[in-house]
Write a structure and sequence with these properties.
By secondary structure, this protein is α/β, with parallel strands linked by helices. The chain has a domain of 173 residues: NAD(P)-binding Rossmann-like Domain (Rossmann fold). It is built from eleven helices and nine strands. Strand 1, helix 1 and strand 2 form a beta-alpha-beta unit. Helix 1 packs across helix 6. Pfam families: NmrA.
């Protein structure tokens, strides 16, 4: 009897890695990659035995089709102003389809009271999952190492610098590959129902330390520049970031500046049986993005 696992947000940083790792597993697992548009999911078609399904929140029939015969779900919602409503819609569809287990990508500190806005959004979704009656596992990772590629690689490549309003605050960055590995364990093995896992990398680093590692790995001088919050917000808004999103990001940066994102856990190794990637390993594996 095969198991069908639906991954929503399958073209994102974590979703793409979950699909990739699931497709490499032995056993009777069918991977269904939920994408906003089939065109964006083209790269996933190269993976073995991956079914691509379009999921459009404006078209309920597409959500119904994506969840049909799905046994388990790795649930990722976009960083959007209506992400809570989107997530609740996904949970409702999962319930109607008889999904047996949801692994939800959340965020470190989601349970904190009062917490920051990002955390409050994630916790509201978590509570909705808890009340749905569906078995669940919550993954609460620290900031992704991949964000250095997504947001800083261009300035590092062109200027040898990157910018954030984080001062010398340390963060326990985690590689998306390790988040995916924990999620897959939760989807394919027993003992994870009702659990919330705080996931971090093996060390907490400041951006000054990350810049030094980038310099060593790439062989060129890389500098981190701490910027004032007003300048950071102006840059984000000028580049097209919605104001609500800029404010939420600045709130996260304040937490990081204050050193409240530096806790390191051993959860990745406890669940997967191997140590998480270090920042140096991550940079070595992706140095072409910065060099």
């Amino acid at each position: 009897m095969h198991t069908t696992i639906l991954v929503t947000g399958a073209t994102g940083t974590v979703g793409r890695e979950v699909v990739k790792q699931l497709s490499m597993l032995d056993g009777d697992i069918r991977v269904r990659a939920g994408v906003h548009s089939v065109i964006k999911g083209e790269n996933l078609k190269r993976l073995p035995d991956v079914e691509i399904v379009e999921m459009d929140f404006e078209e309920p029939e597409s959500l119904h089709a994506a969840f049909t015969h799905a046994d388990k779900v790795f649930m990722i919602t976009p960083f959007a102003h209506d992400q809570v409503e989107m997530a609740k819609t996904l949970v409702d569809e999962a319930k109607k389809a008889g999904v047996k287990h949801i692994v939800k990508l959340s965020a470190l500190g989601a349970e904190a009271e009062p917490g920051i806005q990002m955390g409050r959004w994630h916790r509201e979704i978590e509570k909705y999952v808890e009340n749905s009656g569906i078995s669940y596992t919550f993954l609460r990772p620290a900031s992704f190492m991949q964000n250095y590629i997504n947001y800083n690689a261009e300035s590092v490549e062109k200027e040898g610098k990157f910018y954030q309003p984080t001062g010398d605050g340390k963060v326990s960055y985690i590689d998306a590959r390790d988040i995916a590995a924990v999620g897959i364990e939760a989807l394919t093995s027993d003992g994870h129902a009702g659990k919330a896992y705080n996931l971090t990398g093996p060390e907490a680093l400041s951006n000054y330390e990350v810049a030094q590692l980038m310099s060593e790995v790439t062989g060129k001088r890389v500098e981190f520049t701490d910027v004032p919050e007003p300048a950071a917000k102006k840059t984000m808004v000028d580049q097209g970031t919605p104001e609500w999103m800029a404010d939420a990001l600045l709130e996260l940066y304040r937490v990081q500046r204050a050193g409240h994102a530096s806790k390191v856990t051993g959860t990745v190794e406890e669940i997967t049986g191997r140590k998480p990637h270090t920042m140096r390993q991550f940079l070595e594996d992706h140095k072409e993005a910065f060099a």
